[in-house]
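so ive been stuck on this for like two days lol. basically i have the seq below and the ligand is adenosine-5'-triphosphate, smiles is in there too. i just want the complex predicted, nothing fancy, no docking runs or whatever. if the output looks off dont worry ill sanity check it later, just need somthing to start from for the group meeting slides
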Amino acid sequence: MTDVSQPNSAGTPQSSLHRLDARTKRRNAAESRFKFYGIVAILIGLLMLVTLLYTILSKGTGAFSQTFVTMQVELLESKLDKSGTRDLEKIKKVTTFGYAPLIKGAFEKSVLEHGIDTDLKTKDMAKILSKSAASQLRGYVIANPDKIGETIEFRFLANSRVDGYLKGRVSRESIANDKNITAAQLDFVDQLIAAGVLEKTFNIDFIIGADASDQRPEAAGIGVAMVGSLFMMLVVLALALPIGVAASIYLEEFAPKNWITDIIEVNISNLAAVPSIVFGILGLAVFINYMHLPQSAPLVGGLVLTLMTLPTIIISTRAALKAVPPSIRDAALGVGASKMQAVFHHVLPLAAPGILTGTIIGLAQALGETAPLLLIGMIGFIASNMPETIGEGLLSPNSAMPAQIYEWAKRADPAFYERAWGGIIILLIFLISMNTLAVILRRRFERRW
Amino acid sequence: RDQVQVAGSSTVLPYASIVAEAFGENFDFPTPVVESGGSSAGLKRFCEGVGENTIDVANASRKIKDKEIKACAEAGVTDIIEVRIGYDGIVFASDINGNGFEYTPSDWFLALSNEILVDGQMVANPNKTWADVNANFPAQALQAFIPGTKHGTREVFEDKVILAGCEATGAFDVLLASAEGDTDKAKHKAAEKACISLRTDGVSVDIDGDYTETLARIESNKDGIGVFGLAFYENNTDKLQVATMSGIVPSTESIATGEYPVSRPLYFYVKKAHIGVIPGLKEYAEFFVADEIAGPDGPLAEYGLVADPELADTQNAVADEAVLGSNM
Amino acid sequence: MYDIAKMGTDVDQNTTKISARNVQVYYGDTHAIKDVNVEIGARSVTAFIGPSGCGKSTFLRCINRMNDTIDVCRVDGDILIDGEDIYDKRVDPVQLRAKVGMVFQKPNPFPKSIYDNIAYGPRIHGLAKNKADLDEIVEKSLRRGAIWNEVKDRLHAPGTGLSGGQQQRLCIARAIATEPEVLLMDEPCSALDPIATAQVEELIDELRNQFSVVIVTHSMQQAARVSQKTAFFHLGNLVEYGDTSQIFTNPQDERTESYITGRIG
Amino acid sequence: MYDIAKMGTDVDQNTTKISARNVQVYYGDTHAIKDVNVEIGARSVTAFIGPSGCGKSTFLRCINRMNDTIDVCRVDGDILIDGEDIYDKRVDPVQLRAKVGMVFQKPNPFPKSIYDNIAYGPRIHGLAKNKADLDEIVEKSLRRGAIWNEVKDRLHAPGTGLSGGQQQRLCIARAIATEPEVLLMDEPCSALDPIATAQVEELIDELRNQFSVVIVTHSMQQAARVSQKTAFFHLGNLVEYGDTSQIFTNPQDERTESYITGRIG
Amino acid sequence: MPLSWLVLIVLALAAAGYFVGRIRVLKLAGGDVRALHSLPVYYGANVALSAAVPALGVLLLWLLIQPSLIENTVSAMIAPEMIPEGSNLNLVMADVRRVADGLYTAVETGAMNMAQVDALQASADVRATLGELGVALGQDVRPEVLAAAKSYLVASGTGNTARMVVVLALSLTGLVLSMIRTKPDYRARNVVERAVLALLMAAASLAILTTVGIVLSMLFETINFFGLHSWKDFFFGTIWAPNFRGDSELSILPLLWGTLYISFIALLVAVPIGLFAAIYLSEYAGPKTRAFAKPLLEILAGIPTIVYGLFALLTVGPMLINLFGQTGALGVNWMSGATSVLTAGVVMGIMLIPFVSSLSDDIINAVPQAMRDGSLGLGATQSETIRQVVIPAALPGIVGAILLAASRAIGETMIVVMGAGAIAKFSLNPFESMTTITTRIVSQLTGDGDFSSPETLVAFALGLTLFVLTLGLNVLALYIVRKYREQYE
Ligand SMILES: Nc1ncnc2c1ncn2[C@@H]1O[C@H](COP(=O)(O)OP(=O)(O)OP(=O)(O)O)[C@@H](O)[C@H]1O
Ligand SMILES: Nc1ncnc2c1ncn2[C@@H]1O[C@H](COP(=O)(O)OP(=O)(O)OP(=O)(O)O)[C@@H](O)[C@H]1O
Ligand SMILES: [Mg+2]
Ligand SMILES: [Mg+2]
Ligand SMILES: O=P([O-])([O-])[O-]
């Protein structure tokens, strides 16, 4: 038979598979184009990510190093304890302003010791130091009153202009109108560098320290805010996870399908869309004004963020529960487990990785949130000490990392700007670690059954 | 609670934070907590009531309003101590490498107002460049970054610059003549309102953020002129050059003497009921206005606060715990 | 292999274990089971056969009230086990299901160890006084599930790591562990290969010494091999019920005949 | 009904349409198809039977290279259609699949209207010049799919709203609409009720006048009813291939016999 | 007894009940678990719940009701003529409460005893005494206030004692009753499970509670706002121009327009990029690429929005000017300022990419393989399959993802503040500055205006309106998803 060569229908004339017809070629081209769009889309996304990360890194790494001046300071008894009784109350009477002569003295000594030739007055020399130097000295003296009269080596922060000079942010041209620093002072700085008195090193205080006022950018650190964020995250984790999981279990496993569950469902997805500032309004009204919880406290921040994160956790937990195959539920029911037992013994453990992923994403979102904190008093100048107990950590005033970054970004001294970006780097390290954890969990537990 | 709790104006915040920090260093009291969030939000929380769970001090970049005093009283906050700490200078600055300007209020009115007076008629503002506004100026495109309507600075800008310019150019009289209203007062108000209505074609850009944002705008648009606080300008002299107003260079001195016209007073308010209850509250208030802090040589002035020539009166008032309305 | 003639030798199949009276099942508006009456004997294997969608699974799931978990499902009529109505208000379905075990079409071991798979039921029903007791129950169940030898060395390996046939026998062992009186099996071999199927069938044949086994199958060969009684369902009706040998050799109903001879289904 | 004797009357079945030579299929390390050689005739129905997991579906999917979509799947050996190697580099699987249509086990209409379901293939292959042309193709395909009468009044209703049997016939009509030369069917009736099955079988019987049909089935009755040739697979091997009548009445291989008589599978 | 002690005792009773219940039932069953209806833990839990739940419930109610009861009795003591000029009963009562609170603290800390409190005279400096204890009083205490405060204190003292007795009694009764009921055939599991179910239900209702809280926390100020400002202007006006002098025009429409426009542009960026990325990841990419690209893209969603704001201001704005500005590369002079709807929209779009891509990727993956097989089997190319079969099938889910992204866009603040400017106006030109509802909420709330002026209160009206709008959007989304869901199942 010659069946094979005969056209068997009107539409497709018998053709060799080994030759592409024009239409197929066209369709294949469309195919490649389509795939190309996909690659381009991903590349755009990744490019944006890289640009953002590059911007952040290039602007923020400077915050991790700082310029220090190392000097011998004589703790003059004549200035600090005129009576000589070492009575702490009397020593405390000397305010930080009273410590200025000590610093001037230290400069005098340094200049002599290193044979630096300068016309600068000691008062102007002292200006290259941070304003925190005096309080650093005072703090030391109050802690060690017996050291009065001795000469101790101190490492002082240089002020932000000097630090900027070492980091290339400040130049001799740029300070033309700057009343905070003069060219002569920069010359002096150069001499100090040559003498090895002044150097730029890694600055751990940025990571563990507390905020400083607008005049002392060099002394500001994000550590306490980090602890504030940590406590808020603890609250969120402790509340949002159990409540979110409980709500999801009810909705997914037990709730009858009726209008009440519909209302709850719409509510939850709507809460996910409520601008975060509105949660701040809610927090102020309910937790502070009505329940009288303390202001600026991480506890309140955590509660507000809990309400904000709940929808995220509920939505992803429900998805995780839904993904557990019904056969597992049947199996449990089949051996006589109650529905509650089936859920708690089998479904929940299987959904755990999904739930954790959702929780981590929710936490990450909460970690970066600023607006609601504005209304419950966690933005501003909150230079608390590190909390010592958990209770104190929850209840004593504190800031949070994004709030601190936001606050720094607004301040006048450009040195704060660098710190804001540095803070963003730390925040991002947290976020990326959390994301990585989520990915690892997802990968580790994905479809084990 | 053992620390003083302060909230309010973001303009006062830097000064308050400098004081709070020094206070914490030199006293045995813990460092006060100073929140930002705006004068209005601060006063609102101030007027929430008395007690540990309310704030002790509200910072404000304006005087408390009568309505607010009333709302305070309704919530039991009756004895309020008003403390004026100094003045905030408001300056006009542009990119350091661009043209310098010497303004008068009229220039700003002619640059930004919605309608200006041309040949006795109010017409839609036709000016495109500074040269159109004033022949002495270079032909640089008009672009102004002014505080958004939420900022107190905006009110000062409108009052002391635009309105002054409106009157100086004669536009005010024309507007008053044609203003609608039953009473003189209403007419006056309508004319003022017309004066300060600014053009919306993108020449004048409201900045709702902070001065950092204004600075960033100028950096990305070199033609822009921005409105800044004096303190902010002084910390960024490497990027900005300041313009004079009516021939006066803004500085803490020229503002303190009143030569430079554009400035506003800064305040904080203390709840008398909390004095003696919250440890360190009175000490904080006194420390804030002490000469070594708020005086012309103190750190606040160094940072850019215009010291109050009548600081001594304020110090006495704080020491006496004189409350609002007591001298009326 | 399995001989149909063997059936007659059984003792107990005349004692009624389960009896259904006028059972109707609705899924929302669909009438899935129409007026079924049937008496299922103790210690015997009963097969439900019929074309796809005829309601075999539905009826099977009525017997241990697994249908309760389907929102839209509604059951009318009575089902008595040992003379007690299982749809009575006083009956706790959880307790019922401990008494009426179930094995599903697709093997569904818990993603836990083999030991825990078996121990789960006894644990939640408090069947073991102590660990030793539990160990004993586990071993006994695995032995009765004819899988002990294959898994005794890896009781703490995951149950999901077994082959399909092993998994299904594990599931049967799991169902036996709670000491049920009735064992329901919904197409237990449809996911298995021939060798695994043979093993499970052998097991079923042993189980009927102790349990009343009801098995749904789409394979007439299988029904013929393992069951003593067969019920033929068609479009929700129980068309014919009787001794397996009789159903396959001499069906009374025309529809049964068409089905058996391969003209429908 | 379908008569096995009918087979001999067909004309074309000796013309080879598809021939497979030493085909091996691997899923990763699993050797799923072992050295299969087979010649499938034009205009006839060929049935693949065998126990579950023996590789029927795998081999079927080799014929239109649907296996390409499975990452781990690797095919060795040659498959020729009309003498051309379909695994040749120059062959575009897209073109191939237009020529070799496929119907799946579970009816899978697109979530579109009935009309669009059918028109989908002709549209992407540009088979219709205009709307009227397309309408005609749709009507013709639905007629050949023996479902026209049931759906002609609701062509724009969703295809997913049909009953299972209707859906499966819709899928067949959809496959025919692109004018393929070979039609592969993987257990097309396993999800259907008996009535729907009968309709589909009737349809297959008609289709063989134009197409070369290859059908996988788990039901030997079905194979006997619809096919002219039967291939029996076991554990990845093609054990026996020959005329259906011969395979069912006089199998050569022992394994085939065990399967047919119900001792395995 | 302080409240915390009471709670602790009840909890301790519950804990004890748990163990006793367990032991008792095992004993009754002769140590044989098999003789029990439920596992022993359930009997224990049942006793614990009976001891704790009713008692704590009553305690909670008590805490809510007692103050208002006492308030009523005490306020009867204050005769109308005792209320000073310009004040009202509420204010006086607030004073009474504060003084009573102070006295309570004094007694509690041991600074005074009840006798001393009784002896306290208004003439004595009550304010100073209490101040030392850390209790702030607004003004000196008047005699009638002190008297009322004392009776307030006494009443609440009595109330507290009664509370303690009742709560403990309830707890013990619950304990004993449930112990009596504890018999081997008692259905302890069913009871406990019902209680757990109630807990789960309560957790789910928290969402509703939050909603109610949000609405309530904004409702009163919104009503105040509408008392000061015409609702017609707010909803139907066309100008947004807050003004310190008062008498501002505050209409939501230009803000709504800005919100929608910016969100629209954001979606215009995010949806195609996100969708194509999702398609590539789920349909083309190998598992390795997917495992690597997906989490990387998700980082975009985690970057704090303030960073995006700065990115808009410093990078994207100037870049757009370089393209569309006067001296730009295109030479079109369409754009004069770096802040525009386009700037904010583009940056926001970048932030939203992962919302669309990750969710859509999951959804596309969930489309049954049978759909793809059906199409491929007809000789469709992969892209044809995706465009004509997979995407339509996944559409409801994709719409859901887009709606989520839209919600985020509507609620976003920082990017708009820094990228779009602060001008409220109606314009179609994407190169102009505009602003959104959310940013106006923040700026009116944190601004310098009088806090009881309409210019500040408008924030609450805006917030509530936005809330209602998004609620509507979500109802719509639910409806769409319901309507099209499971079409392919
Ligand atoms: N959950 C459900 N909701 C609605 N209808 C259902 C449901 N489960 C089954 N049905 C319908 O009830 C009828 C009987 O279904 P059932 O599953 O009992 O059949 P079956 O005999 O077990 O079929 P198969 O051999 O395919 O398993 C069918 O028409 C089916 O469509
Ligand atoms: N995607 C896959 N990946 C790995 N192994 C597979 C895959 N698909 C099938 N297999 C294996 O290949 C072998 C043959 O499978 P195939 O699906 O071809 O069997 P079948 O004869 O069609 O069985 P059934 O009657 O159950 O459909 C089986 O062992 C199966 O487990
Ligand atoms: Mg079934
Ligand atoms: Mg198959
Ligand atoms: O924060 P301010 O009130 O000063 O603008």
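Chains D and B do not touch (no CB pair under 8 Å). The domain at 4-260 of chain D is CATH 3.40.50.300 (Rossmann fold).
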